[in-house]
Amino acid sequence: MGVALRSLIVYVMICTYGVSLMFAQDEDQFVFYDFSNxxxxxxxxxxxxxxxxxxxxxxxxxxxxxxxxxxxVEFSTTRSLSFSTEFAFAIIPEAGSRxxxxxxxxxxxxxxxxxxx
Length: 117
Prior knowledge:
Layout: E1 9-13, E2 40-44, E3 47-48, E4 54-55, E5 65-69, E6 88-92
Antiparallel strand pairs: 1-4, 1-6, 2-5, 3-4
Pfam families: Lectin_legB
Transmembrane segments: 6-24
Keywords: Kinase, Lectin, Membrane, Receptor, Transferase, Transmembrane, Transmembrane helix
């Protein structure tokens, strides 16, 4: 595989409206027009690029990267909640490589140590 995970270079960039969460009646929302925002927590291979894009992985085999919003969004209420999100991303595959992907995750915390690679 060697540099096969160059294919797993995932650039996530925000569309015109960025990522926003809108909750019923309350308006908790956040918008990122680029990823230089200090409210993001990055780990693994994730890094901010000088052009405002977020690179989650590099060409290292079996690499992972995560970007989380630093502040919890409260879901434990008695009323119904909904959210919407909008983003654009690109996966640049290398010939013969497999397993590239990206996931949008809603998680109770940023600890993904229990998750497999």
